Amino acid sequence: MRIIGLTGGIASGKTSAAHLFEELGAAVIDADQLAREVVQPGEEALAQIVASFGEKVLNPDGTLNRAALGEIVFADPAARRTLEGITHPAIKKRAEEKLERLRQAGTGTAFYVAPLLFEAGITSRVHEVWVVYLDRETQIERLMARDGLTREAALSRIASQMPMEEKRKLGKIVIDNRGSREALEAQVRRLWREEIADRKPGRG
Ligand SMILES: CC(C)(COP(=O)(O)OP(=O)(O)OC[C@H]1O[C@@H](n2cnc3c(N)ncnc32)[C@H](O)[C@@H]1O)[C@@H](O)C(=O)NCCC(=O)NCCS
Ligand SMILES: Nc1ncnc2c1ncn2[C@@H]1O[C@H](COP(=O)(O)OP(=O)(O)OP(=O)(O)O)[C@@H](O)[C@H]1O
């Protein structure tokens, strides 16, 4: 099974691109989604987060208060590393399980969508890396609009990741998402045809 790592900066359009590949028939595993699964009530990672950050990162119903935890970790690199030390092993384990299931199902190509593919050193687990690229100003605008963040909060999230210009240089393929949604879709369709369907007929 060929595993393509799909990465890019925050709000670059990874999820949007992945959905388009999925519509074309690709298998997709999304690290952000796994990150949500591993902190559900009852999961070991949630207990560890509470032990490290206190009850203030919980909602009254016992679920993780993501906004409260986000405010802490995107303002404090040491706190972010603590959180990553808890969540990343659990995310990686779950990703391996999902990849194994896809492999057993005879999947040809799977996308592993992960914002921190380079930062977390997961590149060795994928066969190639594709990067969704965006210029900084559009990135700030889309991030503020999607998450309702102030410019300052958006900038601190962006600063917690490897700069987009660096990520761009590391991609085997760069998907340019500065343009419209239609332009993104056109690139995805072309890549699907040229890089996946024509190379390996059949499902993803
Ligand atoms: C801090 C948390 C609770 C904030 O939750 P929130 O719902 O606001 O954001 P969400 O999880 O949807 O992430 C949005 C984007 O933030 C960026 N981001 C998330 N975690 C990190 C991080 N540790 N470092 C840098 N950027 C990050 C990514 O680009 C991600 O796509 C959450 O992001 C989290 O648990 N992060 C730690 C786990 C992690 O590293 N996830 C990234 C996938 S491996
Ligand atoms: N070409 C585009 N034109 C306009 N808006 C777009 C375009 N592509 C994506 N968006 C919007 O930009 C925002 C970020 O896109 P998306 O959520 O796909 O990014 P992401 O890389 O998965 O982000 P994150 O790292 O935070 O998970 C979303 O609100 C999405 O709808």
UniProtKB/TrEMBL annotation:
User: What EC number(s) does the entry state?
Assistant: 2.7.1.24
Q: Does the keyword Nucleotide-binding apply?
A: yes
- Report the CDD domains cross-referenced here: DPCK
Q: Which UniProt keywords apply?
A: ATP-binding, Coenzyme A biosynthesis, Cytoplasm, Kinase, Nucleotide-binding, Transferase
Gene3D superfamilies assigned to the protein according to its UniProt record, in alphabetical order: P-loop containing nucleotide triphosphate hydrolases
Its pathway, per UniProt, is: Cofactor biosynthesis; coenzyme A biosynthesis; CoA from (R)-pantothenate: step 5/5
Molecular function GO terms recorded = dephospho-CoA kinase activity
Main location per the UniProt record: cytoplasm
The reaction(s) annotated as catalysed by this protein in its Swiss-Prot or TrEMBL entry are:
3'-dephospho-CoA + ATP = ADP + CoA + H(+)
Is GTP-binding there in the keyword field?
Answer: no
Q: Which PROSITE patterns match?
A: DPCK
Superkingdom as given in the UniProt entry: Bacteria
Q: Quote the record's binding site residues for ATP.
A: A11, S12, G13, K14, T15, S16
Compartments where found: Cytoplasm
- EC class: transferase
The record describes the protein's role as: Catalyzes the phosphorylation of the 3'-hydroxyl group of dephosphocoenzyme A to form coenzyme A.
HAMAP family of this UniProt entry? Answer: Dephospho_CoA_kinase (MF_00376)
- Please state which protein family the record places this protein in: Belongs to the CoaE family.
What is the official name of this protein in its record?
A: Dephospho-CoA kinase
